Amino acid sequence: MSFKAAAIQMCSGVDPVKNAAAMARLAREAAAEGAIYVQTPEMTGMLQRDRAAARAVLADEAHDIIVKTGSELAAELGIHVHVGSTAIALADGKIANRGFLFGPDGRILNRYDKIHMFDVDLDNGESWRESAAYTAGSEARVLSLPFAEMGFTICYDVRFPTLFRAQAIAGAEVMTVPAAFTKQTGEAHWEILLRARAIENGVFVIAAAQAGRHEDGRETFGHSMIIDPWGTVLASAGATGEAIIVAEIDPSAVKTAHDKIPNLRNGREFSVEKIAGAVAGGVAA
């Protein structure tokens, strides 16, 4: 069964209440365009580099305004609302970068905690240590929905193809990649990574992104995308500002792609042996 999916592009600020209102407005617009699945970006609720200021407004899952708004929107609109992620306060004082999928009755159908932490040192002094504040997840799931089998990742996870491959082998037809990619890494790798994950697994990829210059001073790449199993970009947004992109998703296209390039079936186990390089007089034994 084909369905309309939407990716919402946002420029989240430091106030979760304002971000919740923006999410609600955009989700309603997406639903009005016929989308029955709506995805928001990573860190929908707040982008705040000042950790003390962020902790001052963080809430646990039961009291988080983004969780509450996502549930209410799903029930109001009768659709699946996927909060790509938001920061959730944990009992041990750390934070979860957690995504939520809400069903049409408002219930939480799935939670996903980002597995791979963005600990990097980039050019021009840009440095990030996500693991200093966040607790990494350790569990991936493929969720059976009325319209598709769906897998879940968040942002930096896109650089770890084994996560996508494991979910594709488990039956995922649609992989989700909500993100807040930096402008620097986005310009270099965003589209090619998303298309590669779609092509090598023969799946749809839906990636809602943060976009533009944020209140905390960071700049994110935008270019939210929906990509088909052959690697074709079905819909994309610009580099800055809010946007809604919508595309028709036909899960039968996944089988077609797998029939053409059956690499999931053809994969074989193998070992890797590290050996010494060439030496004078011949090759090392």
TrEMBL record:
**Signal peptide from the UniProt entry:** none
> Which superkingdom?
Bacteria
Q: Which UniProt keywords apply?
A: Hydrolase
Pfam families cross-referenced by the UniProt entry: CN_hydrolase
Q: Which residues form the CN hydrolase domain?
A: 3-251
Q: Which residues form a coiled coil?
A: none
What GO MF annotations does this protein's record show? hydrolase activity, acting on carbon-nitrogen (but not peptide) bonds, in linear amides
Q: Which family does it belong to?
A: Belongs to the carbon-nitrogen hydrolase superfamily. NIT1/NIT2 family.
Protein name, entry field: Carbon-nitrogen hydrolase family protein
Organism ancestry: Bacteria, Pseudomonadati, Pseudomonadota, Alphaproteobacteria, Hyphomicrobiales
